[in-house]
Design brief:
4 copies of one chain form a homotetramer.
Chain A lengths: L1 H9 L6 H12 L2 H8 L6 H11 L2 E2 L14 E3 L2 E3 L3 E3 L12 H12 L3 E4 L6 H7 L5 E5 L4 H14 L5 E4 L9 H6 L3 E2 L26 E4 L1 H9 L9 H10 L4 E6 L2 H9 L4 E4 L13 H12 L4 E5 L5 H9 L4 E4 L1 H33 L12 E2 L1
Parallel strand pairs in A: 4-13, 5-6, 6-7, 7-10, 10-11, 11-12, 12-13
Antiparallel strand pairs in A: 1-14, 2-3, 8-9
Helix pairs in contact in A: 1-14, 2-14, 5-6, 5-14, 11-12, 13-14
């Protein structure tokens, strides 16, 4: 406890980690890149409500518990992690910093945080894995270039040491992100989606300055096609969950679930866990918040599987509330993006350390001894 | 799905169809005409709350449903329509554009949308019907010049190919629209209520510029008298519903119902369907919202008849929410008015296409396969 | 109906009768006098919430009812009145207009409205009664100069033709009205509380311009003492209700009740009716609103007596909501004060006519045939 | 009643005692000292919500009760006090005024108010007690310099005449007060924590001007260490409550309880009473409000012990609401701090007198005869 206390006192903490860092990152990034990361779909209602939904809950701290050094380590699908705050997948990280996914992976490794690497990474999945071979990493899967190529990605991920396969199921088509349309957003010159077949061969120049004005000529429509796999392949169904569960020994996590009944069907189809998410407010606008959906999903899953959540978690207190509502771990993306943009590996590690410190601080004040046992009655509306 | 996706990506969609178009139309229209279309009664509370009442609901999207090309076609009282988004009646459309109701009818025909033509049209009902003889059209009825003349209007509508008779029952007297009173709003020079007996003979000049400053000398009081039929005829009762149901083979739709018990009585009196509406916030100020009333009416009708709704629907997501709450189809007026004012036939068709595209997009993301089967649990407060 | 419709269309109605008139009256009145009338106690929370509490309710209008000329006449304790909107008592009316209570009484008589005359009138109760001998008037009683003098006031009121005795029971001490304290508010020179013993002899100059700067030297403390009867007499209890019920043949109305249990005890003590009021937000700050208290009181009284209400009623729709919640009649003060300040008798009559017209209009649109039978389910939260 | 009425009328009362005084105090205090007193932890959500939580409740005043001179005296753990409004402990009072805790104690004595003296006082506990030997005082205990020294403080407090021991249990570590971190807040030069072992010997200069710019070099980290007792001692548990209950004949009050189950365990461990508090919004940010926690704790304690509350009480009406919700007495800190900063002893006494007057006024208007019997149904949400 003494260590934490000193750390807290020494840190010139901003009022909200996210808001502070976001403002700094916004100054550094090209406006269209900032908008790509910061924006949501349509009216951005779901984007806006995500953090507010956690802020509605109030803590009921327990006193005289004797907790002075709360336990932050836990396991996720059996893999030990140093804290229950992981990194959600997001696309095109070399737009934020020349080292892109390599820096994020190194920052996660330094802080013992679970990283989820996206299919839409700008560095091949094997190279990302090689940066931090001992650290816990998951691979997030989109359908790319048809089933055979996609299956091959899964096998490559397993071979590269990823510990789970995360199926993102909330993108049958791309949400309408009006900022990107207004900006005519394009993949910056020199960047490729390194796990896509027709681009993987192009050289990745890690020195590329992100402020370079020229675009790659890959328009948002092209991005949409790449992400949507607008070929002959229909969108995924529960049969695809069964397929991937059979294809690999990796546990399958279904990401993008917002209903309890969907969560149950995912588990019946062979998923090992479900991940509640609104895709950063970038897909279904005016959807229920992750916080509201978490309550529904946890109730339906009823302890038969682990449940994760992302969306609007901006502080250690937000994370503690999500754990109290039944999440095994939580994931963040935007705060980590801003850290990456500001200072690469160090920025990523700094953000994750701050969140971890905030969580430990809140747990100590609230008398919660371990992230694995956060009582439901710690929080109330 | 691929088609929709490409269409979405290509459209420079505004944040809210309605808000964007309304601003453009406002610039084009004379202020008093804009106020006439945009305004509501008294404090405009019901006007203001109409869109907010849909925005309160949240979507609970279903994942992995395999929906890629949702079915938007449906039937209304047995008539096939290309989408469940129809056009509500509104008065005096040649104030918005020289072609008035003719343009609206052509735009509806082009997009396969159901149009409801008002008794207070500025083009005779037969001429409107002749523009698009194959397209689905309904005729909205007010009491005009006594029962005999009104009955004759009904017969003319049936002969002209209208598929249903819509009785507007929420106008025993005209609501107090303070904007019109402040503007001393008058019917512009050269326009007539073409279905009214003492005006139908006057020539309609389709070239009349709507920005012409001169009024027709038909003051708001005169309008009120025309609309109210302030002659010896008392306001309609259920006996009138019975009368019209017996008078014509057309199905009778009662528009303006805001209570479940009223809806039941309408059906008992011979109505085939009920249409929940607050008359665009122009009649009873501080009434319940259409969204709230829809829930009450759907519960009371209990699947024994079709229920429709208008009021504050400004996007495909609003429409999807209304369908989930039990509406068979929804109707819009103001977004279509702005489209008409901006670009005549093309403007009307553009608005209706956008709404249809938005609806398809939301359905795909939410895993809803058909507008005829939108589950009630898709939405929650 | 036709008459109402024409009247509505012709009236250049402001958005809110109260707001519009208040602004005009504010320009005419000395600031301290305006503050005296407009202000409330302490934080003015109860003052602020009074109109908002009616505005929270929504109407559920009934269609096809055939109502075209709603009945506005009713009876109050058996006395016929032309509308269910009466005038609440307020003090010192000659501050607002030289004719003071005489003008208010004449305006009420012209519109058939029930007037409640205050003990703190600036014209003796007999003179007020003589202005409109046939019109319905009630006398509001405070304790003045000890029990014997107070009893004598009651006998004078009965002799002068007042039809009921209204006991104001929410003033055991004067609320702290911070505006008056800040203004060092004083009774203007030349005005007296004409029903108080030591002032009644002073001449009342009806020509006194209200903008006269000089004060009477009667400070707010002196006012407080006059109103509080800070002599040996303790504040009223239920024994006093019994006393007055026995003293006079006039029915006794207890004004200022905010709880159902208090209302029951008032009836047990001999009251004929109860009047829900927060004293214009001038006594208990942060009290429940009149609208909320009305629901409680109506439920407790359970049709065994008439219930009245004042507080924040600013339009005919507000009045209709109060009637639906169970009030027999409603009372207004501030809108009438502003009318009096603007135009004396004509101003008072104009305000009361407008409210009556608005009520009739709302009733017609909502299908309510009579103010004596407004269904509870007309309104919902 | 007459006395109160006159007092009220004469006082130029501000709209809110707290807001008015705070603005004046803010002008007088060095910005970093003002921030130290005014601020809360993290996002200051709990700080902000504290007064709002009382303001949500509404009064249901009882009329005709005959109350004219409400009884404000009560007892706390058997000790008579002149009013149910006591003074909560706060640190470092000589920062606000040269006389610090001595002035606060004298102001409390003058008004018959219970004072709670903090371990972190800038005047030794014995000297504070000596200022007002007959007046009711409690001693608030933190762990300081290990168990033996802390036990000795308890014995000194008992010997000095303190009537109860208040264990503050919500500070296992210091909350992160971002204002202090941003200001690099330091204990001003010349001030010491007079009850701490390594500082008690340093001279206290009561003439020290609080606006002196120089700091003492005692940084916020040093303060944190002093308050946290970051030595080998673990944070308190229920065993410590048992220890202190056995160590002294003084009744033990546990301060900082926010849950009903915690309150029960405190009583089981030997506490005589529990004190609901959020530590002025300075510890757990986003905790439940004191008002909400009070309801939970009162329900759990179920009349088996006295319950107190602090947090956001800024007026007599707030205090009355807290009493209705079951608090035996309430405590204030910030309003008293501002009074101390403005005018020393007189300022403290003035604030306490105002609060007392406001409470008596509200009780009279609401018909509440005694602070010892405030009915629960006086308030409603």
């Amino acid at each position: 406890m003494a260590d934490l206390s000193r750390a807290d006192a020494a840190l010139p903490l901003p009022k909200r980690t996210g808001a502070d860092l976001e403002a700094r990152a916004r100054e550094l990034l090209p406006p269209a890149v900032y908008d790509y990361y910061a924006g949501g779909s349509e009216t951005e209602t779901t984007l806006l409500e995500a953090p507010l939904a956690w802020q509605r809950w109030r803590l009921r701290p327990r006193m005289l518990s004797g907790v002075s050094a709360p336990e932050l380590t836990t396991t996720v699908l059996g893999t030990p992690v140093a804290s229950p705050i992981g990194v959600a997948p997001w696309a095109l990280q070399r737009m934020a910093h020349p080292e892109g996914e390599l820096a994020t992976a190194a920052g996660c490794a330094r802080t013992g945080s679970l990283m989820t690497v996206s299919t839409t990474a700008t560095v091949p999945l094997d190279e990302v894995a090689a940066v931090a071979p001992e650290s816990a990493k998951w691979f997030q899967l989109y359908q790319v270039h048809g089933p055979a190529y996609t299956d091959d990605l899964v096998r490559r991920a397993a071979a590269a040491g990823y510990r789970a396969l995360v199926l993102t199921v909330d993108l049958p088509i791309l949400g309408r992100r009006l900022r990107d349309l207004a900006n005519d957003f394009q993949l910056p010159e020199g960047l490729v989606m390194a796990n896509h077949p027709d681009q993987a061969a192009e050289p990745v120049n890690p020195e590329l300055p992100v402020s370079a004005a020229g675009g790659s000529g890959v328009s948002v429509r092209r991005l949409s096609e790449a992400l949507d796999s607008v070929d002959e392949t229909p969108p995924w169904t529960y049969a695809n969950v069964e397929h991937f569960a059979g294809l690999t020994d990796l546990p399958v996590v279904v990401k993008g679930v917002l209903r309890g009944d969907d969560a149950q069907r995912c588990l019946e189809a062979g998923a090992s866990a479900v991940w509640v998410s609104t895709h950063g407010g970038r897909q279904v606008d005016r959807a229920v918040s992750s916080a509201a959906a978490l309550v529904d999903v946890v109730s339906a899953v009823n302890d038969h599987a682990e449940v994760y959540v992302d969306g609007g978690i901006r502080s250690g207190t937000d994370a503690l509330i999500a754990l109290a509502l039944g999440a095994r771990v939580v994931f963040c993306a935007r705060p980590v993006i801003w850290g990456l943009a500001i200072d690469g590996v160090d920025g990523v590690a700094d953000v994750l350390s701050r969140l971890r410190t905030e969580l430990a601080h809140s747990m100590t004040l609230c008398g919660v001894a371990s992230v694995q046992r956060v009582p439901r009655d710690l929080v109330t509306l």
